[in-house]
Amino acid sequence: MTSNVNAAPDSTSAAPLTDLSASFKAYDVRGIVGETIDARIVEAVGAAFVDVLGLAGQTVLVGGDMRPSSPDFIAAFARGAAARGGRVETLDLISTDELYYACGALNAAGATFTASHNPAQYNGIKMAKPGAQPVSSETGLKDIQAAAEAYLAADAIPAVDEPGQIAVRDVLRDYAEYLRSLVDLNGIRPLKVVVDAGNGMAGLTTPAVLGDQLLPGLPLEIVPLYFELDGTFPNHPANPLEPENLRDLQAAVVRHGADIGLAFDGDADRCFVIDEKGEPVSPSAITALVARREIARAKAAGESEPVIIHNLITSRAVPELVQHDGGRPVRTRVGHSFIKAVMAEEGAVFGGEHSAHYYFRDFWNADTGMLAAMHVLAALGGQDEPLSQLAAEYEPYVASGEINSEIEDKAAAVARVREEYEGDDVAVDELDGTTFSAADGTWWFNLRPSNTEPFLRFNGEAKDRETLEQLRDTVLAIVRA
C-alpha cells in the first residue's frame, strides 16, 4: 500500500515542490503556507521523521499552535508518520514547551506546528527526539529534508507492513501539574498579573498553569489580554521582542495597578516581563534572577558549584552574580541548539539568553517561558518590594539592545572596527561574531553577522548611559562608513 502525497487535503497548495531548502532552516522548518510549506510536504516530512529517527513501532507525538493551517498540518504529519510505522498520538493545540514536556515525560519523539513569532501567513515545524533532545541540521534535520524530498519526487509514501495507528492524547493538565511541582506559588503574597498572550498559545496555557481552570487557584489575579486563540493575530504580532508589541501590556499594567506584566510569543516558549511602572525588565535581569534561585536550590540539594549557561550577548551582570552566589557561569554562542548541547555537556541547572529563552535541567534542558515566569512570580511574591526595585539589583549596567546595520561586506566592517579598537587595553574574542571588551570592565560590545540577511548586529553594554552612547555611536559610524 502506498500513500499518494498529492492526496493530502490542502486548499492552499501551490505547484508541487520537491526542493525543501527554502523552508528547512538550521533549527526547524519554517515557510509561507501554500508556497514553501503545505500539507503534501508535511505528510512527506512526517514519514521522513519516522524513517530518519528510527521510530517505527514507537510513539510519535504531534501537535500545533492556533494558526489556521495547523489542524490540517497535524493530520498530514500524522498520516505520513503512521504510514511508516509510527504509533502517532496527536496532542492537538499545544504550546512549544508543552511538546517538550510531552517528549520528556513520555520519552517520545515529537513535532509541533508553529512559526513562533512570525506573521500569520507562516507556519513551520519544531521537532524533538525522545527526552526532548533538539533536532537541528546537525542532528538529523538535513537527513529528514533529504528523505522527505525523495518521497515528494516519487509522489508516493510506501506504507510499511504494519502501519501505525493514530490516537489522541491531552497533556495540558499533566504539563500544568509538572510546572507547579517545580515552583510552589501557593505561599506567595497576592499578586495582580496582566498577561498578554498575543492571541497565541499562552491564552490556553496561562489559565491552566496560573489560573484555576484545571488546578486549584493560586494567589494570583490574572488580567487577560488577547487570550482568544487566533492565528491571524488581529491585535498585534505575537513577537514581544519588538517594543511596539509591548505597548498594550505596558498600558494595561499601569491602568490596572498590577504588580507585573507577562508577554508571551506565539508558541509561548518565550516570556518577557514588565514591572509595575510599565517598564520592561531585561531578559538578562530575568536570567540573573532565575539563576540565583536555581543555584540556591541546587546547593541545598548538595551540588557544590551549580553551572549556569548564558550566551555572549547577555549582560555581564549574569556571570558576576553567578560567581558571587557560588555557581559556575559558562558562556556560549547564541542559539538554542548550542545552549541545549552545552546544558547537557555541563549538567547545567539553568540557562538564559538575551532573547528571553530560558532553559532548565528539570525541563529536559529545554526552554519554557512559563516556568521562567513562575520563578519571577515566586521571587516577587516572596518579598514585599515592587518588581522595579527587585529587578534593579540585576541590572547594574546599561545595554544597547540589538542594532542592525545593513552592510554588504560585513567582514570588512568588522576589520575596520578591529583596527580601531584592538590593543592592550581591549580583549577580543570570536566565540560568536567578534566581541570587544575593555580591560577595565567599563564596556563591551559584540558584532555578529546575520547568516541569512545583509545585517551586522551590534550589542553593547557599559557602566553608564553616557559611556554606552559614545561607544555605540563611535562603533556604528565605523561600521557604516
TrEMBL record:
Its cofactor is Mg(2+). Residues 23-149, 174-278, 285-397 form the Alpha-D-phosphohexomutase alpha/beta/alpha domain. Belongs to the phosphohexose mutase family. This is Phosphomannomutase/phosphoglucomutase. It comes from Sinomonas flava. InterPro entries: A-D-PHexomutase_a/b/a-I (IPR005844), A-D-PHexomutase_a/b/a-I/II/III (IPR016055), A-D-PHexomutase_a/b/a-II (IPR005845), A-D-PHexomutase_a/b/a-III (IPR005846), A-D-PHexomutase_C (IPR005843), A-D-PHexomutase_C_sf (IPR036900), Alpha-D-phosphohexomutase_SF (IPR005841). Gene3D superfamilies: Alpha-D-Glucose-1,6-Bisphosphate, subunit A, domain 3, Alpha-D-phosphohexomutase, C-terminal domain. CDD domains: PMM_PGM. NCBIfam families: PRK09542.1. It comes from the Bacteria. Residues 402-476 form the Alpha-D-phosphohexomutase C-terminal domain. Keywords: Isomerase, Magnesium, Metal-binding, Phosphoprotein.
